């Protein structure tokens, strides 16, 4: 397999709805909540999905209560499942196994998330040996992504995740420690906030540079005005996290969906390649 360069890989991790069969609007179930005004079972098309697979209320999603739709980002998984895994054939065609197609969407989203993580680390200054290990994982993941539908299982992906995790953890520490060293600081146990419950907390008074918030609950917390350089956001729940005026330029493992879920403003600084959410004033 020819390995894509990092820029090409990153570009392929952006959604292209024009090449997708509206999969996120069919595959997932929605529960009536702050994010959705209706219940919808998995596998059933949303009432607002047009024949063309476009959204009939795209320009007024937030006003109509579909905040969740403005946050969701498939990282390019939708078009990959549509065009590569199922060879450009839609779930609307009788002979296509729709339920299998829908079941693969969340798996492919996770594959693309892992690809994003790997491309993020590979773009940083890491030891040569670790870069080789990551490239091996990348190649394996790219091959897995091309598997036929029956082999794209959650179990296979979980096994990959478990193998990759120690390397992600070690390299996160390496990158965060190096980043802090550049500004005369040292990584300490206080920087390790994995899975911390910080819901609604005001963290904006502390210097959080270099902190690991992997899997942490930051829902509604306040990091406004903070320099979030070398902060690891892998898997953190950042819904309504206040990042007004914050600097996210050098944050680690930050996905577009996380950015979309945050509350920023015109002073929030993002790295190149991220889209500025329209609800950030
Ligand atoms: S409201 Fe629009 S974007 Fe949201 S699920 Fe329905 S069709 Fe898709």
Rounded mean pLDDT score: 96
The best one-word shape is: globular
Rg, nearest Å? 19 Å
List the ions, cofactors and other small molecules found in this model.
iron/sulfur cluster
How does the major sheet shape up? none
Overall number of structural domains? 2
Extended strand count: 0
Distance between the termini: 44 Å
Summarize the structure in words.
- By secondary structure, the chain is mainly α.
- The protein has two domains: 6-177, no CATH class; 188-281, 3 Solenoid (Pectate Lyase C-like), CATH 2.160.20.
- 35% of the residues lie in helices and 0% in strands.
- It is globular and about 60 Å long.
- It starts with 5 loop residues before the first helix and ends in a 20-residue tail after the last helix.
- The mean pLDDT is 96.
- Residues 25, 46, 48-49, 55, 57, 66, 69 line the site of iron/sulfur cluster.
- Iron/sulfur cluster (SF4) is lined by residues 25, 46, 48-49, 55, 57, 66, 69.
How are the SSEs ordered, and which strands pair?
Elements: H1 6-12, H2 67-71, H3 77-85, H4 98-122, H5 128-145, H6 154-182, H7 256-261
Helix pairs in contact: 3-4, 4-5, 4-6, 5-6
Bound molecules: iron/sulfur cluster.
Iron/sulfur cluster (SF4) binds at residues 25, 46, 48-49, 55, 57, 66, 69.
């Amino acid at each position: 397999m020819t390995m894509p360069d990092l820029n090409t890989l990153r570009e392929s991790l952006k959604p292209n709805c024009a090449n997708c069969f509206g999969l996120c609007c069919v595959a997932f179930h929605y529960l009536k909540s702050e994010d959705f005004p209706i219940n919808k079972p998995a596998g059933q098309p949303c009432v607002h999905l047009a024949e063309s697979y476009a959204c009939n209320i795209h320009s007024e999603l937030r006003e109509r209560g579909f905040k969740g739709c403005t946050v969701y980002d498939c990282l390019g998984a939708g078009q990959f499942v549509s065009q590569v895994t199922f060879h450009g054939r839609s779930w609307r065609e009788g002979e296509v196994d729709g339920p299998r197609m829908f079941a693969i969407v969340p798996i492919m989203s996770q594959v693309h998330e892992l690809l994003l993580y790997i491309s993020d680390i590979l773009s940083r200054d890491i030891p040569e040996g670790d870069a080789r290990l990551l490239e091996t994982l990348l190649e394996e993941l790219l091959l897995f992504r091309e598997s036929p539908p029956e082999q794209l299982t959650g179990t296979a992906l979980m096994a990959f995740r478990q193998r990759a995790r120690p390397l992600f953890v070690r390299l996160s520490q390496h990158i965060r420690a190096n980043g802090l060293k550049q500004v005369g600081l040292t990584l300490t146990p206080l920087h390790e906030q994995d899975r911390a419950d910080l819901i609604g907390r005001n963290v904006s008074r502390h210097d959080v540079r270099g902190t690991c918030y992997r899997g942490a609950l930051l829902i509604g917390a306040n990091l406004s005005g903070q320099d979030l350089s070398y902060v690891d956001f892998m898997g953190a729940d950042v819904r309504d996290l206040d990042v007004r005026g914050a600097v996210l330029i050098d944050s680690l493992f930050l996905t577009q969906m996380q950015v979309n879920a945050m509350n920023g403003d015109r002073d929030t600084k993002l790295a190149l390649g991220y889209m500025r959410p329209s609800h950030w004033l």
